[in-house]
Amino acid sequence: MSLYSAGVEYGIHCLIFLVGNRGDTREASVRDLAELQGVPLDYLAKIFTKLAKAKLVVATEGVRGGFKLARPSDEISLLDIVNAIDGRKLIFDCREIRGRCALFEGTVPEWALDGPCSVHGAMMNAQKRMEEALSQQTILDLARKVGRKAPAEFGEQVDHWMNERREKKSNVNPQAIPVNDITD
Fold this sequence. Notes:
Elements: H1 6-17, H2 30-37, H3 41-53, E1 57-59, E2 67-69, H4 78-86, H5 110-113, H6 118-136, H7 139-149, H8 152-170
Antiparallel strand pairs: 1-2
């Protein structure tokens, strides 16, 4: 069982696609991002509601509207995204079992509960290190890693695909588009 939901993975991947070739932001609808990556539209729409509430993305208006990054890509950390989508999650929930040993026969010696629980302390240290690692990685860092891994034309193909979709939307009669599909 993973600590973070699939929504975190979907959200991070979507924000990578919202980073343009030069680290700037590009616009895309939730519908286009879902189709581009083969993820469920309804679930992705809920994720983008959370990302917008956390001020990581902002909706753009109009028939060609969608979402774009709300601030520079080098200012959005993975921890920001994780917390926006799943909330702050603790990796450990101390049950304070150190005083339950059968050998104590119901009378817990003072030494057993003296000071902080060492297991709890070790787990909180791990939590702190994990959050520090997530806070040090930005969406721009990941977008650059993807950019280095992918063929040079991939970024251009993404731009072309997104622009083609946006152009099709602007050529459609606005009265024929349901209101809830404008930013989908």
